[in-house]
Write a structure and sequence with these properties.
The structure is a homodimer of 216-residue chains. Chain A is mainly α and 216 residues long. The first copy, chain A, is built from nine helices and no strands.
């Protein structure tokens, strides 16, 4: 990817995090990226093309947190996360860190998602990114609980990723302290992993979760 | 509350759901509510006052879903939700309904919360509304699991409400089908209630959740 194309995408994420998708003006983006408006249209054709590529960029950047953390651990000699549960926790908790790029990335993601409430043009990309993320977390859960049924793993992964988005939104808007958000997330992983263990013990091959009806 | 004051708050929720907090212009609000700009300033002093009252209005409207549903059940002779678990499920699932006022209310709430990422003026009200909601859900969980420790009930309630916000955001933006969102929410209630039962059995009086460390 060319440097200037990357600079435009970085600037687009910054402007969207700051003003929302509705507030993204190509004039301001050009100033922020230090390029001409013409270059933005040359690289991204139109506003929709720009938004789609920004969404993919924001998404890829979030995926890189994990890789970067592993590199930092290796460079500093810190013990890397070992065991599938540690790795799952680390991957999810990386999104709850008080670092400027994490805040900006999560805020931009939230704004891009919110834009899809009224404008369907990004829905396909958002849904795909969500499915891929759920799949990754389901795979990690499957390493922790190898005998849990596939559908139960996916359901747990969907709950954990949706919870992470809910906690992240509360933290970013100053409603929930970061330490509380991280504690709730860590607990939720424990609760889901215990739930998946119960599934295995019950040998519920169809993955149907225990009905709440049976609990009262 | 005067009819015109209510009309202004209803219109403010509509405009915020449609354009976000940043997009709320008093001119457009006056047209939407069918009142003069002067009347808006008379009732709400300034923009911050208007936003604060709109947040409270949106929040109270969400609380009324439950009461209205009970009234509908009574009028139609439908069996009301019985038992504390049924009531908890019903209260949480009312926010995942494909009804215009639910969509508008949840969208407006999400936009008001997102506005607090950069503008701290609504944070106090948002945090208070969140604490009250968590308290209500914790009380309902306590009726299902009377011997679970208080701190475990609050932690479960915080996870369930944050998950509901995360699932709601995915549904509203067209990423997750409504039936999936409702299924995930129902499962999560079952998982948390089972988790609280384990707590009771373990007699962990301090409410510290089972550490995920012990699970792998």
């Amino acid at each position: 990817m060319s440097d200037r194309r990357t600079a435009i995408l970085e600037a687009a994420a910054t402007v969207i995090a700051r003003r929302g998708v509705r507030g993204l003006r190509v004039e301001e983006l050009a100033v922020e990226a230090g390029v001409s408006k013409a270059l933005i249209y040359y690289h991204f054709e139109d506003r929709t093309g720009l938004l789609r590529r920004t969404l993919a960029f924001v998404n890829n950047r979030a995926e890189r947190y994990t890789a970067e953390q592993s590199a930092v651990d290796a460079a500093t000699g810190a013990a890397p996360a070992s065991g599938p549960l540690r790795q799952l926790e680390q991957a999810l908790l990386l999104e709850l860190q008080d670092l400027p790029h994490v805040r900006e990335n999560s805020t931009a993601w939230g704004e891009l998602r919110a834009s899809a409430v009224f404008d369907p043009e990004l829905r396909g990309e958002l849904a795909l990114a969500s499915v891929i993320w759920v799949r990754e977390v389901a795979d990690q859960l499957g390493e922790v609980r190898p005998t849990a049924p596939e559908s139960a793993l996916v359901a747990s992964a969907e709950r954990l990723t949706a919870l992470l988005e809910g906690l992240s939104a509360r933290w970013l808007s100053g409603i929930l302290p970061l330490t509380d958000a991280r504690t709730r997330m860590r607990e939720a992983i424990g609760v889901e992993v215990a739930h998946l263990a119960g599934h295995t013990a019950d040998r519920s091959a169809d993955g149907t979760p225990t009905s709440p009806n049976k609990l009262d």
